[in-house]
Each structure stands twice: as structure tokens, then as C-alpha cells.
Amino acid sequence: MVSQEMQENIGRLQMLEQNIQMFSSQRQNFQMQLEEIENALKELQKTKNRPYKIIGNLMVASDAKELVEELTSRKETITLRVQSLEKQEKKLKEKAEELQKTIMNALQQEKGGSS
Questions:
Q1: What is the CATH number of the domain that holds 92?
Q2: pLDDT (mean) for 7-31
């Protein structure tokens, strides 16, 4: 039979794993946005024509310099978010590993004690 403390630790581990998955998903989403921004910045450098910006359902002619500034600013913001999510994800993984070790040790002791 599993002790109350063990059940609580297993529950905590499951919550940590869910949070890790959530942070990982958010990080991947932001990384995709970063790729899109980087591609847009590359295209802006190549084009000689006036660029357009999508606002809602409209495409509006825009100033290339302003678009570069706007995209660069967004890129910086998203990069900071990705870095923050990576740090949080790393901390959660470390906590999960520690908790997993605790659970495994407790199971080994219970198994060894009941033999």
C-alpha cells in the first residue's frame, strides 16, 4: 500500500509534468513567432517595393523603416519571453527530477522493507 506522503508526491510530480508541458508548448509557440519575424525582416531587406502590413483583415501600405523597428521590437520582446520560459521550464524539470528520485527511493525502501 502506498503511503499518503507518497501519493502526495506522485500528485505533485504529475502537476510538475503538466506545467513543464505547458511551458514547453508556450516556448515552442513563441519560437515559431520568432522565426516568422526573422523571415519577415529578411524579406523586408530584399524588397525594393513598398511593404504592406496586415492589420486585422486589411493589408495597409507601410513604411519599411517603421516596419523594421516594429518587428525588431517584437523580436526582442518575444526573445525575452522565450528565455524566461526556458528558465522556468528548466527549474520545473529540476524539481521534477528531484521529486522523482525521492519517490523512487521511497519505493525502493518500501519494497526492501516488505521483503
A1: 1.10.287.370
A2: 96
